[in-house]
Design a protein that fits this description.
Layout lengths: L15 E5 L1 H10 L9 H4 L14 H4 L27 E10 L7 E14 L6 E10 L5 E11 L25 E6 L4 H5 L12 H6 L9 H15 L8 E8 L8 E9 L2 E8 L4 E11 L1
Antiparallel strand pairs: 1-3, 2-5, 2-7, 3-4, 4-5, 6-8, 7-10, 8-9, 9-10
Length: 293
Amino acid sequence: MPIFYPDILNQKTAPRTFSYDDKDVMLYALGIGLGADPLDEKELAFVYEKGLKVVPTAATVLAARARSAPGEAVEHPPGHRASQINFLMVVHGEQKVELHKPLPAAGTFTASSRTIGAYDKGKDKGAVVINETVWTDDSGQKVATLTGSTFARGDGGFGGPSEGQPAPHPTPSRPADLSLDFATRPDQALLYRLNGDRNPLHSDPDVARRAGFERPIVHGLCTYGITCRAVLAAITDYDADAISSHEARFSAPVFPGDTITVDLWRDDKVISFEARVKARGATVIKNGKTGLR
């Protein structure tokens, strides 16, 4: 089923209630490499229930049970045509997490998702679809807003606008103020996938080879979480509540075992960042921006 424009902008999912607990919070932190040194008390605070802290980017996985399954029916006004992209040909393009209040170590929330943008790159060039998910608490107050773009390689040529997509955050032209290295584990993707993304691209060597990779790759959202870990370590002294937003664009895959270098620039309450794998000369995250409270 193709994309129908502008009908797709009226599509949304029914509100879904979901819960998470301290185990989910700790598993996410372990999945992005926190706690590798169990005697590091600052990192231990994210992987041990005593005074447990929540990594802000954990919001990308904590609502996994509330996520729509590919192909699941969505709500739309009567008379409108329902759009459906080809999920076998999608790539995660960008991700932003905005926290309206710090995340608790456990809780129950309601998530509502809708499509807020669709851009046509051409019949043979694909499409960009932007979706937004809003968490609310039991009083109806916003807790988090997650905005993500998907590059749908097989869905171009639907007649929508080709321009107007939000511009990426510009990376400062000066040298980075500081850089941190994070080694990923050979089993990084196998651990991270337990947060909910069981795509075999990250675990099955045969599937990875058929997709054009020499071996399974690390989840993009895992790399995204590692960039947040860099901000926690270098900027906020592991104060998770100091981060109000974290956004980035995915530009290349990371392989388990790669060492990721995160470059950081600080301008008052705005932190810009990029991530690269020096051994392969690959920039894996671009146009990163963290907002501080």
